[in-house]
Amino acid sequence: MWRNWAGNQTCRPAVMADPATRADVARAVVRAAAAGHVVRVAGASHSFTDAVVTDGALLSLRHCNRVLDIDRATRRIRVEAGITLRELNQVMAEHGLAFPNLGDIEAQSIAGATATGTHGTGARLQNLSAALHSIELVTADGTPIEVNAEQDPDIWRAARVGVGALGVVTAVTIQAVPAFTLEAVDRPMAVEEVLADLDELLATNDHFQLFTFAHSPLAMTSARNRTGLEPRPVSRTRAWVEDEFVQNHLLRTVCELSRFVPGANAPLQRLGSHLAGYSHRIDRSDRIFTTPLRVPFVEMEYAVPREHTAEAVRAVRELARRPEFQVTFPIEVRWVAPDDAYLSPAAGRETCYIALHQYHKLDWEPYFRAAEAIFDSFGGRPHWGKQHFQTAETLRPRYPEWDSFQAVRTRLDPEGRFANAYVRRVLGEI
Ligand SMILES: Cc1cc2nc3c(=O)[nH]c(=O)nc-3n(C[C@H](O)[C@H](O)[C@H](O)COP(=O)(O)OP(=O)(O)OC[C@H]3O[C@@H](n4cnc5c(N)ncnc54)[C@H](O)[C@@H]3O)c2cc1C
Q1: Which atom of ligand 1 lies nearest, measured to the CA of 103?
Q2: Beta-carbon count within 10 A of 218 CB
Q3: Where in the chain is CATH 3.30.465.10?
Q4: Class of domain 65-178
Q5: For residue 239, is pLDDT > 90?
Q6: pLDDT tens for residues 183-192?
Q7: Which residue from 48, 132, 88 is spatially nearest to 290, judged by alpha carbons?
Q8: Which residues line ligand 1 (CB under 6 A)?
Q9: Which of 61, 194, 247, 274 could form a disulfide with 82 if both were Cys (CB 3.0 to 4.6 A apart)?
Q10: What CATH fold (topology level) applies to the domain 181-382?
Q11: What is the Cα–Cα distance from 225 to 242, expressed in whole angstroms?
Q12: Nearest residue (CA) to ligand 1, atom 53
């Protein structure tokens, strides 16, 4: 039995394997093909969609997590695909290297994170998959191929965000940057003030993001900038209060209270927003980017053209105030730069990502369906790892190079060996 982090996806595959080497992965793909099984890979199982779900063969690459090579001169690091971002961050830091940008957590595997277009925030910085320099992919007949921009630009632009539909990624080379320190300033601001000053806030901060409770006029903003100052890790007590108590214990209490006393939700949100104070930290980049998130939730996230940020944020805040949806989590807003991966939600356009969360014990579907209608009206593209209700038919017009991706898919996986129900729904039949 397999289940994802949020517990909203489960499956009972015919075969489960956790190969120890990349050669074993290739053999597992050949065996699955001989048995007529579809092949899917579970990374760290942190996606909310049924991207991993299969009744065929499910491979876990958790034992394929070795560091293969570190080239200090080019700052390239070659690793097996099952390594987690946490393991990678540690190894990179030991060698004076870092990812240019990261999302909120570091539990994902590198192959799983990049496959769905995982991102952080920073209007001048791209999704995580843009940090890949090359990819080793085991294709449908079990043959490994090395993919990079020089060798085959078409496969390269398809494979960086491939939703597991092109083959099994067994290793990647990451183009790292020199390790850096971030100064993070969190402070509450009026949502309307942020929206009015957005261009300046995005231009003057390396990484800017906000969380906002729909019932509060405030946003908790976070501005993170590179600094030449030495890291000053906060004390364990302060880290516990800010990261564990506020983000986890307090949030869980608010969610549970609001579940049983729905009328308490709005005042609790307003109180929480006023209590969320000012915070200042200076630390190693990955320690600033990521924090432990332990309150289970289900999430939807859409990439909308940046110019629609204000209208989309206002519309979603209004929606999340509707009492029937019982929304207890804040809305998260981030920005990223365009890239050229065919299926990247940020492909070809300056992007604002808006994420909605729902406590795992509450019904998420009516809220997310209503929100999707808003995102549709802005030409939104869903995060491939987060809940959405789109199909290949509705998605095709939103990706200018959709057909180029499909041409690569037909070349690499002509029989649909890697196509589970999710892939068939969102990318179509081969
Ligand atoms: C608490 C939490 C916080 C999150 N924060 C962020 C965030 O800040 N930003 C963001 O963008 N997303 C975020 N996400 C979403 C998450 O980053 C993505 O869903 C990501 O894809 C999960 O990585 P994973 O290793 O768990 O992959 P999985 O969920 O296991 O798999 C994702 C996809 O990749 C495929 N895959 C995995 N490994 C391979 C491989 N070796 N070869 C081929 N295909 C493969 C799978 O088949 C599947 O289709 C968050 C999720 C959670 C639960």
Answers
A1: 8
A2: 21
A3: 65-178
A4: alpha beta
A5: no
A6: 999 999 999 9
A7: 88
A8: 5, 40-47, 51-52, 61, 81, 103-105, 108-109, 111-113, 115-116, 118-119, 163-164, 168-169, 293, 383, 385
A9: 61
A10: Alpha-Beta Plaits (3.30.70)
A11: 20
A12: 46
Mode of pairing for the β-strands spanning 39-42 and 57-60 = parallel
| Sequence ranges of the chain with CATH classification 3.30.70.2520 | 181-382
pLDDT tens digits, one per residue of 39-71: 999 999 999 999 999 999 999 999 999 999 999
Share of the chain above pLDDT 90, in %: 88
Q: For every residue of the chain, which 3-state class applies, written as one string? A: CEECCCCCCEECCCEEECCCCHHHHHHHHHHHHHHCCCEEEECCCCCCCCCCCCCCEEEECCCCCCEEEEECCCCEEEEECCCEHHHHHHHHHHCCEECCCCCCCCCCEHHHHHHCCCCCCECCCCCHHHHEEEEEEECCCCCEEEEECCCCHHHHHHHCCCCCCCCEEEEEEEECEECCEEEEEEEEEEHHHHHHCHHHHHHHCCEEEEEECCCCCEEEEEEEEEECCCCECCCHHHHHHHHHHHHHHHHHHHHHHHHHCHHHHHHHHHHHHHHCCCEEEEEEHHHHHCCCCCCCEEEEEEEEEHHHHHHHHHHHHHHHCCHHHCCCCCEEEEEECCECCCCCCCECCCEEEEEEEEECCCCCHHHHHHHHHHHHHCCCEECCCCCCCCCHHHHHHHCCCHHHHHHHHHHHCCCCCCCCHHHHHHHCCC
Asked whether 316 and 371 are in contact (CB, 8 A), the reply is yes
Instruction: Kindly give the distance from the C-alpha atom of residue 224 to the centroid of ligand 1, in angstroms, as a whole number.
Output: 24
